[in-house]
Specification:
By secondary structure, the protein is an alpha/beta fold. The chain contains nine helices and twelve strands. Helix 2 packs across helix 6 and helix 3 runs parallel beside helix 4. The protein has a five-stranded parallel β-sheet.
C-alpha cells in the first residue's frame, strides 16, 4: 500500500547470531589450522636439525683407534737346571764351597762326587769313565765341572796296554785322550752339555810343580780341541813371579791370609773359597746360574785376594850361614812299589819325607818306578 513506509530488502547473507556457527567460515578455519600445523612441522624439523640430542648422526667411516701391541712377558733366566761337580780331593773342597754358595738357588739341581787320591792314570783306585757314566746316566747334567789332574804325574796305560812314561813325548797325547773320554761321556748323556775342566793350581814340591804344568798343558790342549772350557787356576795361587805361595793378601783389609795347607798341595778354607770364586767367575754368567748371595760373595773374594810372595809377608831377617846338612840315615826296612807309587805317595803312606826317601835311594827316578821294585826306607827323624 502507498501510505506505508517501504520495507528494506532482506540480506541474502544475514550476520549470524552470536553463539551460532557459520557453515561457510568453518572450512577457512580448518585450512588455516592445517597450514599452521604444516608450518609448525616444517619449523620443528628445521629446528630439530640444530638440536644435537634429536639430530640423526651422520653416517661416516669409523677409523679404529690404534691398539698397542701387548708387552711380551720377561724371558726368565736360562738357568742351568742340573750342575755336576766331579774330581779328586781338590774338587771336594771346590764342590763343598759351591754347594754352600748355591744352596737354595731356585731351579738348580746340584750334585758333587769327589774321591781322594784318584786320577786318570790310576784306574785301580777309581775307574773315572765308569763312574761318570753312572752319574750322567742317572741325571743327565746341563753343565759339568771336572777337576782331575793333581795325582796324574805318573805313567799312563796306552790304548794297546803299554805303559807311557810321564817324560815321554807321547804322554801328553795319551793323557789328553783319557781326558777327552770323560768329555765325550758327558755329551753322550746330554749333547748340549757345557763342560768345564779346572786346572791344577801350583804345587809346593818342586818336581810336582813341574809335573802339574805338563798336566795342565795337556788338559788345556784337549779342551781347545774338544770345545770344552779350561779354567786356569795357576795365576790365582802363584805369586807375581809365578812361584808357589801359601798366602794371599786381601786387598779389602790388607791382611795376609793362608790359602794352602802345610803339605803344599791342599787348600785352606780361604783357599777353597778362592778356587770356587775363580770357577764361578768363569762360568756363572756364561751359564746364567741363578743369582745367590753366596755366589756373589765368592766371586768378590776371588777378585779381592791376591797371591803374594812368601818373603813379602815376613819381616826381613839377617842372613845366616846355612846349617850343616843332616845326613839321612837308612833304616832296615824296605818297601815294594805298588801301582801308581811315587816318592810323594810313599812318603805320605809311610810318614816319611819324599826327599829322605830319594836320599837313601840314589839314582832312582820316582817317576819311573816299577811295580814290585824294592826301595830302601830312611829312618824317621
Amino acid at each position: 500500500m502507498s501510505g506505508l513506509p517501504a520495507t528494506p530488502p532482506r540480506s541474502t547473507n544475514p550476520k549470524p547470531e552470536s553463539g551460532s556457527s557459520s557453515r561457510t567460515g568453518q572450512p577457512k578455519r580448518l585450512l588455516v589450522t592445517a597450514t599452521l600445523a604444516i608450518l609448525g612441522c616444517l619449523l620443528g624439523t628445521a629446528c630439530g636439525q640444530d638440536n644435537p640430542q634429536k639430530a640423526k648422526p651422520e653416517t661416516a667411516t669409523q677409523v679404529p683407534a690404534p691398539v698397542a701391541a701387548p708387552t711380551p712377558p720377561e724371558r726368565p733366566l736360562a738357568a742351568v737346571k742340573r750342575l755336576l761337580v766331579v774330581g779328586d780331593s781338590l774338587s771336594i773342597s771346590l764342590g763343598e764351597q759351591l754347594e754352600h754358595a748355591l744352596a737354595g738357588a731356585p731351579g738348580l739341581d746340584y750334585t758333587r762326587d769327589g774321591t781322594r787320591s784318584t786320577g786318570l792314570t790310576r784306574p785301580e783306585l777309581l775307574d773315572w769313565p765308569a763312574r761318570l757314566r753312572e752319574l750322567t746316566a742317572k741325571n743327565p747334567p746341563d753343565a759339568v765341572i771336572i777337576m782331575i789332574g793333581a795325582n796324574d804325574e805318573m805313567p799312563i796305560a796306552a790304548a794297546d796296554g803299554s805303559r807311557v812314561y810321564f817324560e815321554s813325548s807321547a804322554w801328553v797325547d795319551a793323557y789328553a785322550a783319557k781326558a777327552r773320554e770323560l768329555v765325550d761321556i758327558c755329551r753322550q748323556a746330554n749333547p748340549a752339555v757345557a763342560v768345564y775342566w779346572v786346572g791344577v793350581p801350583s804345587m809346593g814340591e818342586a818336581s810336582l810343580a813341574a809335573g802339574v804344568k805338563q798336566v795342565n798343558a795337556a788338559l788345556a790342549a784337549m779342551c781347545a780341541a774338544a770345545d770344552c772350557r779350561f779354567i786356569d787356576t795357576e795365576a790365582a795361587f802363584s805369586d807375581p813371579d809365578g812361584r808357589f805361595t801359601r798366602h794371599a793378601r786381601d786387598v779389602a783389609t790388607g791382611d795376609a791370609v793362608p790359602i794352602r795347607t802345610a803339605d803344599g798341595v791342599h787348600l785352606t778354607d780361604t783357599g777353597s773359597k778362592l778356587l770356587a770364586g775363580v770357577v764361578l767367575e768363569a762360568l756363572a754368567d756364561r751359564e746364567r746360574l741363578p743369582p745367590s748371595a753366596g755366589a756373589k760373595e765368592l766371586r768378590a773374594q776371588a777378585r779381592d785376594l791376591r797371591a803374594i810372595a812368601e818373603e813379602s809377608r815376613q819381616p826381613a831377617r839377617p842372613v845366616r850361614e846355612p846349617a850343616a846338612q843332616t845326613k839321612i840315615k837308612r833304616s832296615n826296612k824296605t818297601y815294594a812299589v805298588r801301582t801308581g807309587d811315587t816318592f810323594l805317595t810313599i812318603g805320605k803312606r809311610m810318614g816319611l819325607a819324599p826327599d829322605d826317601i830319594a836320599a837313601v835311594n840314589p839314582g832312582v827316578d820316582s817317576r819311573r818306578l816299577s811295580i814290585g821294585q824294592t826301595l830302601r826306607l830312611p829312618a824317621k827323624r
